Amino acid sequence: MATMKGLAMLGFDKIGWIEKEVPEVGPNDALCRPLAISPCTSDVHTVWEHAIGDRHDLILGHEASAEVVEVGSLVKDFKPGDRVIIPAITPDWEAVESQAGFSQHSYGMLNGWKFSNSKDGTFAEYFHVNQADGNLAHLPDEISAADAVMLSDMVPTGFHGANLAEVAYGETVVVIGIGPVGLMAVAGTVLRGAGRVYAVGSRKRCQEVALAYGATDLVNYKDGDIVEQVKEAQHGKPVDKVILAGGGLETFDQAVRMVRPGGIVANINYLGTGEYIQIPRVEWGLGMGHIRIVGGLMPGGRKNMEYLAQVLVNKRLDVGRLLTHRFSRFEDLEEGLLLMKDKPRDLIKPVIELTS
């Protein structure tokens, strides 16, 4: 266990396999080995869109379910051999920001996001988890390792969009972008009781799954301006909420043009390129329309993982619909990541399940 293999960002626009020393475990931490892992569009933003700056020999990945290999001397609730869910966001729970309710930003903006940002990620034979008692969650026997990976990021990020939008019973909601995160935003919006849900996207496979998760209407941006399409379907009436889960900076303009006074635009989209967003002045009520624009990184940590696991255990959600491309070898990670980069039309999410 002196060294391990991992798939890394070698520099801008370059990935490759490297060897590194196995991470050391502090008294509150854990060492894990992946049971299943999944590449994410965020990895694509990092490598090919240069979203977080240059990184050299940084092991990628932040989505995994795993087996605990080693724990620190102060870890109470986990032991070697435990199957666990690994949240993509692993905050420092003693930070002032965490105590204020923003653990995602413990000790600084987005600093709860550590994997493949400030430290090596999960695309390795072993990886380190800080503050294990606060950041690991036991994986229930009813959930497969592959399905559990969707609890790392896709489910909590999509559901966070529905929560940020404060979706209420009977409301009309537009979800822009129906990749895996947007699909989970559709599912979360439906679970919160939305009456009508527009799913905006062009890929047929994603449209089909959006309908399966409860979307009532499909909007294809290739058929024309999505604002006009929604307005026509609404007979000119604005919608209550808009969740941004894809697209570029222009989606903020589109969202504000759709939403009612007092409505909410909730962003969970990783804005990997560009400098500024633009808000239409008049449609925003000249700055006085009470239209809230909010955005936030998904919450991490143990409690969130445990609660979301119960959604799967009790069959409120089938995440298997997201897993369109399945692999079984660690070396298949590279192919899976390139799939996320190229996004063939039948792709939603690849997963590499190393063991059942």
Structure report:
The chain has helices at 41-48, 96-99, 132-135, 145-149, 154-164, 180-191, 204-212, 226-233, 250-258, 302-313, 333-342; strands spanning 3-11, 14-21, 30-37, 58-59, 64-71, 83-86, 127-129, 137-138, 172-176, 196-200, 217-219, 239-244, 259-267, 292-295, 323-327, 349-353. The chain is α/β, with parallel strands linked by helices. The chain has two domains: 3-153 and 298-353, Medium-chain alcohol dehydrogenases, catalytic domain (Quinone Oxidoreductase, Chain A, domain 1); 156-295, Rossmann fold. The strands form three sheets. Strands 3, 5, 6, 7, 8, 15 and 16 form a seven-stranded mixed β-sheet that branches. A six-stranded parallel β-sheet has the order 11-10-9-12-13-14, sandwiched between helices. Strand 15, helix 11 and strand 16 (349-353) form a beta-alpha-beta unit. The chain is globular. The two termini are 23 Å apart.
Secondary structure blueprint with pairings:
Layout: E1 3-11, E2 14-21, E3 30-37, H1 41-48, E4 58-59, E5 64-71, E6 83-86, H2 96-99, E7 127-129, H3 132-135, E8 137-138, H4 145-149, H5 154-164, E9 172-176, H6 180-191, E10 196-200, H7 204-212, E11 217-219, H8 226-233, E12 239-244, H9 250-258, E13 259-267, E14 292-295, H10 302-313, E15 323-327, H11 333-342, E16 349-353
Summarize the structure.
By secondary structure, this protein is α/β, with parallel strands linked by helices. The protein contains eleven helices and 16 strands.
